[in-house]
Design goal:
Blueprint (H helix, E strand, L loop, with lengths): L13 H15 L4 H13 L23 H11 L4 E3 H10 L4 H11 L4 E3 H10 L5 H12 L9 E3 H15 L4 H15 L5 E3 H5 L8
Antiparallel strand pairs: 1-2, 3-4
Length: 212
């Protein structure tokens, strides 16, 4: 009988190619991800520069409010501390705030979110559209998540920071897992105190903490 089970070989360049595509999609925020993906890979196959928006460029969206850290904090407050959110419910919150629907769709597509998903991952990808660096993105998230009743600079549990940094770095695709591990070990051992919290200044003003 003919052998039907054949070993599937994954091209060695595929993981990096997909990570670069994901990073470019987050940066560009295309309104039609499928068409943009076709244009992206078509350009690469022809040896041309793909249609990727530079980090400093902001898409112009008329008649919609611009996403800001303040509006992300409003969304976080409306999520009310839940770890898992419903896509339909979050889409309605987004609409009430008059935020661009194409940005919402892009975050959903890049995160491969379905009917239910982790709120922190959605928050991370949304914040990445505002931050020009990973440190800036994490600063925005930290400010969104920080307890308003706390005095002093914004701070969050180190375990939350660890989850967010690992996820964002993986999506970004340009930071090695070993570098992420070294940074997290250093922060945990040398910076985080007995309270288990990390402050924004701990990773934005410490020359030994290089998140990228």
């Amino acid at each position: 009988m003919p052998q039907t089970d054949k070993q599937i070989c994954i091209p060695p360049e595929l993981p990096d190619l997909l990570k670069q595509f994901t990073k470019a999609a987050i940066r560009t925020q295309p309104p039609d991800l499928i068409q943009w993906a076709s244009d992206y890979f078509g350009a690469i196959s022809r040896g041309e520069s793909p249609p990727v928006r530079e980090r400093s460029a902001r898409p112009q969206r008329e008649n919609y409010a611009e996403l800001t850290p303040e509006l992300l904090k409003v969304l976080h407050q409306r999520v009310s501390g839940r770890l898992i959110v419903q896509a339909d419910e979050l889409a309605q919150m987004w609409k009430v705030l008059n935020l661009p629907p194409d940005l919402f769709d892009s975050v959903m597509n890049v995160g491969r979110f379905s009917e239910e998903f982790e709120w922190l991952k959605f928050l991370a990808l949304s914040s990445s559209s505002l931050g020009v660096t990973i440190a800036k993105t994490l600063k925005i998230i930290c400010e969104v998540l920080a307890n308003e009743n706390d005095n002093g600079p914004p701070r969050i549990p180190f375990s939350t920071f660890q989850f967010l940094y690992t996820y964002i770095a993986d999506v970004d695709g340009e930071i090695s897992a070993s570098h992420v591990s070294r940074m997290l070990n250093y922060i945990e051992q040398e910076i985080v105190g007995p309270d288990g919290l990390i402050k924004v200044n701990d990773f934005t003003h410490n020359p030994r903490v290089r998140l990228e």
